Recover the amino acids of this structure.
């Protein structure tokens, strides 16, 4: 019986270790994968480590993470230790009240703390960036240090400091030479917890940062649309550094003791000094790296603020632009056109925005954009004619196209017949043969486009009767087909072939098809959304001349090639599009948008129609949720 219990205990322990560590092993293995696949190992390669090191944005986020974690650890450990010592000498009422306050941030949900800190900085009109992130990290690390140090202080003889002073020590000597060495293990534990909490934080950092400052957690979040294998590489690097550090700290004393080279006991005080010295050296190195001298150039000392979608920029374009101009680029990221609009409408200043077509039209209507200086724009001749002069900006007075594409159906060729697609078009989403095996995209515009086109209407209709019919079409779809409404997770899910088909942007379909040869892309003859995202300059931009320089640079062959080859969306540069369609994306028809179908349309912006569609879409999502 006892043997059975021991066997069960060992088996459980093995499964627990596997549960915690197998994902890390999996990540390390696939950091050396020769392809982008996260499920199939196709061969050994170091390419993702090379790309990681050459990706200035990723490395900058790593430097920022280390810098903030080290500074926050040092300051919070100092403040937390002093506070704990002070509380040990305070009256019981004061001690209990302060400890209750100290426990509150630990028990409080992080999202509440994050919003509170964000509102505080906004109220005090403190510009969010590196300093606000650092202050927030110090604030949430201090309670953990106090909790780590307090038990050690309680275990001390309360008369220890008095005895030291009776023997001639000054109060400062009593503190630093008597009290601190005795509680060093608690200080060390508090510092490690503080460092871990800071290094790992995402939610609070996301809300309190700004000016393009991102730590590693935020960087990974912005890359979540397509999981870049470089994330595996940088995560593996962190794991290796931590593992090596732990091995050094634990093995060196053992080796010295066995070799007889070191007989003296390693006291907590000495270990603390060793750790403190390491922290100081690391801080100095981090400051040195973060303050690398800028490249000399025409715009040396100037800063360009860009507001762009996440995972919508090539690996090298920003670094190359900074190298060529000497300027510093700060890029903030948004998740939706509406999120971008709120910030711009509220007066936040950016030099370049990259919104979608209908949002560009809205910004023009509300006089939130300035016209481009055509004498400074030298790239329009490089742009594909199919994406120039679109209805929202017929003369390209306000915008230069960045990416463009269509919306269509990504489908598994092994599950869906071409005949069904051609015969039914978008109505295949109501074919009972595929019940429970389809994705709807969580975009009110594109989902209503699909429904309206299936019914034979224009996607720009403002006829309430036609909009109601489209709503009924979608309601019937979600209630009878057991559909799953998703956003960017459709990309990885279709790479894995988890469902038969779904609605998707052509650029995302390009990536899916490059990862899974069984996937196809289909655009019904009834029409689709011909979309484009463009570079525009806001009315309140502070560096207009540099903004024009970046627009030209991003539209040049090198800049556009870096963007399109990395992201997978179709470049507006005609030469780049032609080049990639026969090299990187050869045989992938989703990369080259359909541009001559009379039923394809560009979205127009109409506020009243938008409100109707938005209200209807909320009801569709509720119906889909209830159907499950």
């Amino acid at each position: 019986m006892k043997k059975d219990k021991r066997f069960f205990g060992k088996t459980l322990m093995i499964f627990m270790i596997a549960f915690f560590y197998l994902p890390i092993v999996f990540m390390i293995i696939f950091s050396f994968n020769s392809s982008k696949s996260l499920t199939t190992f196709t061969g050994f390669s170091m390419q993702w480590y090379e790309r990681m090191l050459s990706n200035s944005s990723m490395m900058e986020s790593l430097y920022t993470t280390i810098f903030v974690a080290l500074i926050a650890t040092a300051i919070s450990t100092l403040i937390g230790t002093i506070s704990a010592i002070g509380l040990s000498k305070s009256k019981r009422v004061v001690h209990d009240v302060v400890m209750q306050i100290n426990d509150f941030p630990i028990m409080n949900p992080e999202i509440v703390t994050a919003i509170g800190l964000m509102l505080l900085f906004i109220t005090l009109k403190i510009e969010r960036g590196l300093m606000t992130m650092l202050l927030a990290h110090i604030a949430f690390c201090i309670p953990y240090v106090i909790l780590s140090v307090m038990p050690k202080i309680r275990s001390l003889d309360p008369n220890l400091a008095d005895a030291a002073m009776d023997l001639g020590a000054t109060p400062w000597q009593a503190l630093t030479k008597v009290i601190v060495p005795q509680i060093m293990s608690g200080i060390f534990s508090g510092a490690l917890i503080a460092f871990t909490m800071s290094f790992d934080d995402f939610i609070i950092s996301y809300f309190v940062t700004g000016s393009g400052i991102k730590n590693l957690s935020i960087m990974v979040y912005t890359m979540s649309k397509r999981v870049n294998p470089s994330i595996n590489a940088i995560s593996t690097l962190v794991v290796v550094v931590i593992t090596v550090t732990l091995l050094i700290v634990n093995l060196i004393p053992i080796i010295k003791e066995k070799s007889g080279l070191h007989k003296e006991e390693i006291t907590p005080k000495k270990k603390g000094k060793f750790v403190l010295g390491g922290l100081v050296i690391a801080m100095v190195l981090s400051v040195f790296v973060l303050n690398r001298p800028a490249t000399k150039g025409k715009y040396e000392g100037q800063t360009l603020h860009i507001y762009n979608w996440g995972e919508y920029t090539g690996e090298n374009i920003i670094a190359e632009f900074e190298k060529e101009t000497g300027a510093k680029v700060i890029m903030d990221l948004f998740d939706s056109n509406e999120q971008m609009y709120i910030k711009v409408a509220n007066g936040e200043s950016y030099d370049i925005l990259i919104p979608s077509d209908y949002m560009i039209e809205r910004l023009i209507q509300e006089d939130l954009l300035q016209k481009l200086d055509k004498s400074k724009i030298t790239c329009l001749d490089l742009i594909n004619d199919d994406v120039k002069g679109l209805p929202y900006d017929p003369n390209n007075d306000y915008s230069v196209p960045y990416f463009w594409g269509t919306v269509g159906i990504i489908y598994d060729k092994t599950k869906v017949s071409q005949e069904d697609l051609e015969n039914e078009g978008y109505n295949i989403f109501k074919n009972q043969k595929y019940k429970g095996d389809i994705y709807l995209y969580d975009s009110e515009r594109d989902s209503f486009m699909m429904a309206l086109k299936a019914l034979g209407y224009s996607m720009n209709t403002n006829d309430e009767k036609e909009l109601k019919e489209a709503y009924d079409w979608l309601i019937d779809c979600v209630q009878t087909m057991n559909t799953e409404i998703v956003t960017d997770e459709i990309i990885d899910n279709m790479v894995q072939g988890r469902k038969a088909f779904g609605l998707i942007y052509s650029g995302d379909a390009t990536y899916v098809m490059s990862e899974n040869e069984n996937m196809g892309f289909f655009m019904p003859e009834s029409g689709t959304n011909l979309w484009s995202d463009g570079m525009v300059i806001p009315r309140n931009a502070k560096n207009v001349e540099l903004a024009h320089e970046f627009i030209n640079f991003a539209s040049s062959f090198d800049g556009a090639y870096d963007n399109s080859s990395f992201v997978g969306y179709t470049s507006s540069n005609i030469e780049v599009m032609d080049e990639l369609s026969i090299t990187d994306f050869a045989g992938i028809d989703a990369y080259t948008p359909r541009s001559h179908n009379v039923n394809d349309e560009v979205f127009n912006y109409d506020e009243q129609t938008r409100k109707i569609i938005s209200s209807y879409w909320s009801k569709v999502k509720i119906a889909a949720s209830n159907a499950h």
Summary: The chain has four domains: 2-46, 52-209+227-290, 303-405+532-582, 407-529+598-627. The longest helix spans residues 56-88. Confidence is low (pLDDT under 50) at residues 286-292.
